[in-house]
Amino acid sequence: MLTLAFDTATSVATAALVRDGEVLGERATRAFRVLEDVDDLFSASGATRAELTGVVVGTGPGSFTGLRLGLAAARGLALALELPVAGVSTLDALAAGAPGAVPVVDAGRREVFTLRDGEPVVCAPQEVEAGLCVGDGALRYRSVLEERGLEVPPDEDERHVPRARFHAQLARDFGPAELVEPLYLRMPDAEQKR
C-alpha cells in the first residue's frame, strides 16, 4: 500500500510518501509548495503515481487558507487519480510525533488550537493545560506557556512540526474525497466581519 500524506494547516507544511509503514521520503516547506513537494517525493523515491493507493490530508485546525489549499489539492489528486482520501487532525498528528505532549497550533487572534480531554478546542494560550507543549502555537507563545510552568522544546525541535508520516500512520477511514471536511473551530475572519 502506497500512501501520499500532507498537511498544510500550520506555518510549516509537510508531505510524505509512505509504503506499508515505511517512509520513502518526507518534505517540510510551505503550503503553496505542497504539489511541488509531492512531485519531488515521487521523483526521489522511484515510486509511480500508478502505485498510489490513497491520499491522507491534514484537516486542521489551523490556517483557513492553508486548510483550503490542502483539501483542494487532496480532492484534485483523488479525482484525477481515482483514489480514496482520509482526513487526519493536525493536532492528532502533532501528538503522535511527541507522545505525551500537548499539541498547540497558532490560531491567530491571540488564541491557540489544542486538545482538551482528547477533543480539539480554541482557547487563549494561558488556558493550555499542563505538560510539554509542541507546535507553532507553543513556539509563538513560549513565554506565556513557560511562565505557567509548562515546558516547550527548543525552536528547532522537529516535534513542533505536524509530520505527514504521522498522518499516514493515523489514517483509518478512506473514502470519497468530498466527505473529508476541514476542522474549523470558529468562523473565518471574513464571515465575522460581515
What does it look like?
The longest helix has 18 residues. The chain starts with a strand and ends with a helix. Helix 3 packs across helix 6. The strands form 2 sheets. It has a 5-stranded mixed β-sheet, sandwiched between helices. Strands 8-7-6-9 form a 4-stranded mixed β-sheet. 31% of the residues lie in helices and 27% in strands. It contains 7 helices and 9 strands. A hairpin with a 2-residue loop joins strand 2 and strand 3. It has 194 residues and is an alpha/beta fold. The protein has 2 domains: 121 residues, ATPase, nucleotide binding domain (Nucleotidyltransferase, domain 5), CATH 3.30.420.40; 61 residues, ATPase, nucleotide binding domain (Nucleotidyltransferase, domain 5), CATH 3.30.420.40. The model has no long low-confidence stretch (mean pLDDT 94).
Topology of helices and strands:
Blueprint: E1 2-7, E2 13-19, E3 22-29, H1 34-45, E4 52-58, H2 64-81, E5 85-88, H3 90-97, E6 102-108, E7 111-116, E8 119-123, E9 133-134, H4 136-140, H5 142-147, H6 164-170, H7 189-193
Parallel strand pairs: 1-4, 4-5, 6-9
Antiparallel strand pairs: 1-2, 2-3, 6-7, 7-8
State which percent range the strand residues make up. 25-35%
What kind of sheet is the major sheet?
Answer: 5 strands, mixed
Average pLDDT figure:
94
The H-and-E topology, N to C, reads as: EEEHEHEHEEEEHHHH
Helical stretch tally: 7
The value of Rg in angstroms is 16 Å
- In spatial order, strands of the major sheet run 3-2-1-4-5
Question: Could you say what the CATH architecture of the largest domain is?
Answer: 2-Layer Sandwich
Query: How would the global form be characterised?
Result: globular
What is the CATH third-level topology name of the largest domain? Nucleotidyltransferase, domain 5
